[in-house]
Amino acid sequence: MEKQTANKSSKGWRITYNAKFTLTFCLIAVILLNLNVFNGGVVNHYLGLSPSIRFFEFYRLVTYIVCHGSYEHLFSNLLFLIILGPILEEKYGAKRLLWMTIITAVTTGLVNSLLFSTGIIGASGIVFMFIILSSIVNLRNKEIPFTFLLVVLVYLGGEVIHSFKADGVSQFGHIFGGICGAVFGFVGVRK
Fold it and tell me: 91-129 b/e with 16+ CB inside 10 Å = b?
């Protein structure tokens, strides 16, 4: 009898879908990029955030974050999302992380539409929100983690410096995503 019980409990390893929001987000981004590549840019044309958004196109304030310009663009974002997403989902939960992502996307998109004459695509702002949020995930009362200050200095400082280059990258989106992450972390969107 003991032998049968031991065999049942030692079946081996199994794969789990551990970070539901993060993995689903990444899967959608991969599917959309492949569709975009095979359809000559149609997906980004209809889901990316254009400079002058019309009232009936408000869905673009969220959909632009799952659109990417190239595999390199997508994979650089996926790397950070897959590393940081599970940690943040464990701390905040998938629903809260989804709402933080939507709020970051919408506010970044609105401010971009109001201040700039360029459209945006990609999850880079969300990645920066994840980076900043993860650096303060263990925030305690009246303590600012030194790692948070280093992340701000390295990433956001670098984005400010890169903002003077004409490279087609929305450093504003990165900076604003980081600001949103800091606000979520310090205001206390806690699980």
Answer: bbbbebbbebbeebbebbbeebbeeeeebbbbbbbbbbb
Structure tokens at 144: 């600012």
Distance CA 103, CA 90 (A): 19
- How do the domains of the chain map onto residue ranges? 18-187
H-helix segments, the chain: 2-9, 20-38, 42-47, 60-63, 71-92, 94-115, 124-135, 146-151, 157-162, 171-187
Ordered DSSP codes for 3-27: HHHHHHHT---------HHHHHHHH
pTM, two decimal places: 0.82
The CATH class given to the 18-187 domain equals mainly alpha
| 49 phi, psi to nearest 5 deg | -90, 115
How confident is the model over 70-127, as pLDDT tens digits?
Answer: 999 899 899 999 999 999 999 999 999 999 999 999 999 888 888 888 888 999 899 9
User: Mean per-residue pLDDT for 131-154?
Assistant: 76
